[in-house]
Amino acid sequence: MKNVRQCLMLCILFLTGSGTAFSVSYPKEFGDDWTSAVQFIDAHHTAWKPLFEEFGVDARLAEAIVFPELIRYSRWQDEIETAAVNGLYVLQGTSGANFSIGRFQMKPSFAEEVEAAWNQSALAKEYGFVFNLQDGVEARR
């Protein structure tokens, strides 16, 4: 019973506190990062919309899902992380480097899963292209 009261008190404090998630101005909080993310989405919406619709996905919903990753994107950090992945992942695989990079924060292990799924899909046959999934430097490159 004591834990229930403590939980209720924390909830009340959270909901009535001055710094709650309900009172934050996210555009103001994230500043230029927010603005850059909005501009990136706006610049690509027209091209993305038909692609999402082809798969029955609402473009604005998909954009909302990637929006937080776009806010966190840093071109300089991405350059450093990409160089690290190119060096470590290519040589050692996911045991050498398996952290997220790029605007959409993909890990090498996720990219490998996408490649494997592609190879199993009808699209691989339709386009006549399969990924080399061998565990080696040339395949990872």
Question: How would you summarize this macromolecular structure in one to three sentences?
Answer:
The protein is 70% helix and 0% strand.
Characteristic key phrases:
about 140 residues; mainly alpha
Kindly describe this structure.
This protein is mainly alpha-helical and 141 residues long. Helix 3 runs antiparallel to helix 4 (59-72). The protein is flat and about 50 Å long. The protein starts with a helix and ends with a helix. 70% of the residues lie in helices and 0% in strands. The model has no long low-confidence stretch (mean pLDDT 85). It has helices at residues 2-16, 26-30, 32-54, 59-72, 75-92, 108-120, 122-127, 137-140.
Helices, strands, pairings?
Blueprint: H1 2-16, H2 26-30, H3 32-54, H4 59-72, H5 75-92, H6 108-120, H7 122-127, H8 137-140
Helix pairs in contact: 3-4
**Beta-sheet strand percentage?**
under 5%
Helix content: 55-70%
Rg calculated over all Cα atoms: 21 Å
Terminal-residue CA separation: 58 Å
Low-confidence blocks of residues: none
Largest sheet: none
Q: How many E strands?
A: 0
Instruction: Please work out how many helical segments DSSP would assign.
Output: 8
C-alpha geometry: flat
Structural class: mainly alpha
Order of helices and strands: HHHHHHHH
The mean pLDDT is 85
